[in-house]
């Protein structure tokens, strides 16, 4: 289809060509618009939302399928956080009041905490249980800090045990003391 621009807002279409694209069901919706602004607004409504919803679905599907695997906790959390930031970009909710928005983010924070904990390797079951048995579920940043500390503790313990020293403290006497 060839376009002829008569002004900044008016667009006319040459429909004399006989192509397959003329038979698209969208064409009548577009051709009925009087201005290019109205045409682009209609296209954005039709395809922009579909693309955003599809991308949101894909991101959430990726988030729910992520597992820690062989990654360190920090690398895994960074990957999750990147996906969450991408999701936040694509979610475009309109809020009628600030309180609803605050409630939404509290729920979202708890959901993200659960996703993070669920996706960890089984070796973190004890710290996962400790966190979930708290009277108040901590935020995702605090949960990450606790789990990462546990991972570091385990690494130190593993290094100590591989060098033949015991993780318990050793007490020795200085020479000449009785």
- Termini gap: 101 Å
Structure classification: mainly alpha
> How many DSSP E strands?
2
Order of helices and strands: EEHHHHHH
Query: What average pLDDT do the residues reach?
Result: 77
Low-confidence spans: 1-23, 166-172
The dominant shape is elongated
Radius of gyration: 29 Å
User: Strands of the biggest beta sheet: in what spatial order?
Assistant: 1-2
Specify the number of helices.
6
Main beta sheet? 2 strands, antiparallel
Helix content: 55-70%
- Taken as a percent bin, the fraction of beta residues is under 5%
Structure description:
By secondary structure, this protein is mainly alpha-helical. Helix content is 60%, strand content 4%. A two-stranded antiparallel ribbon has the order 1-2. A hairpin with a 5-residue loop joins strand 1 and strand 2 (11-14). Mean pLDDT is 77; it is low at 1-23 and 166-172.
Task: Summarize the model shown.
The chain has six helices and two strands.
Question: Any chance you could write out the topology, listing elements then pairs?
Answer:
Elements: E1 2-5, E2 11-14, H1 27-31, H2 36-65, H3 73-90, H4 98-119, H5 125-132, H6 140-162
Antiparallel strand pairs: 1-2
For this entry, give a set of tags:
mainly alpha, 178 residues, 2 strands, two-stranded antiparallel ribbon, single chain
């Amino acid at each position: 289809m060839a376009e002829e621009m008569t002004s900044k807002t008016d667009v006319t279409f040459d429909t004399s060509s006989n192509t397959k694209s003329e038979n698209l069901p969208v064409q009548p919706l577009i051709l009925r618009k009087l201005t290019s602004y109205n045409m682009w607004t209609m296209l954005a409504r039709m395809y922009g939302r579909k693309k955003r919803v599809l991308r949101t679905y894909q991101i959430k599907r990726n988030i729910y399928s992520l597992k820690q695997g062989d990654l360190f906790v920090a690398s895994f959390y960074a990957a999750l956080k990147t996906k969450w930031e991408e999701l936040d970009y694509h979610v475009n909710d309109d809020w009628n009041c600030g309180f609803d928005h605050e409630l939404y983010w509290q729920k979202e924070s708890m959901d993200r905490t659960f996703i993070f904990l669920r996706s960890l390797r089984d070796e973190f079951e004890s710290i996962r249980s400790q966190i979930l048995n708290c009277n108040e579920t901590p935020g995702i940043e605090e949960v990450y800090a606790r789990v990462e500390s546990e991972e570091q503790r385990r690494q130190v313990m593993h290094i100590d045990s591989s060098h033949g020293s015991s993780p318990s403290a050793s007490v020795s006497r200085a020479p000449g003391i009785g």
